[in-house]
Design brief:
Blueprint lengths: L1 E9 H13 L3 E4 L3 H4 L6 E7 L15 H8 L10 H12 L3 E8 L15 E3 L1
Antiparallel strand pairs: 1-3, 1-4, 2-3, 4-5
Amino acid sequence: MCSFLTVGIEAKSASALEAALIALRLEVGREVNPHVARLFMPGDVVFMVTHGACSCDLVPLKGDSPREEKRRRRGMSGSRKPNQLSDSLFAALRAHRPVRLYFHEVADDQLVKPVPTGAAVTVVE
């Protein structure tokens, strides 16, 4: 199971935000899941932000979560949460607000699965 971050922003601000995210060494690509893209405002530029193959590194970890347990088994310290990368990411998002965010988890080959009923984006204002 991996986490993915989808970001939606008004077209006039999209290129500036994309450049800021790329400067943080993040990958920015078009959102491939039409179900997720429909959660955003009409006219938003919607893209997926990843670090490597997914966005797991961008999500601040919570104690006792399955992800934290997995990190512990791999010998990674719990003191690595929330990591510096996620702090930088959210600073960049706040600098380009309003930005709409949607975090979702998917299994290996389910990048185009429907979103849960009642799913909504989070607005960073």
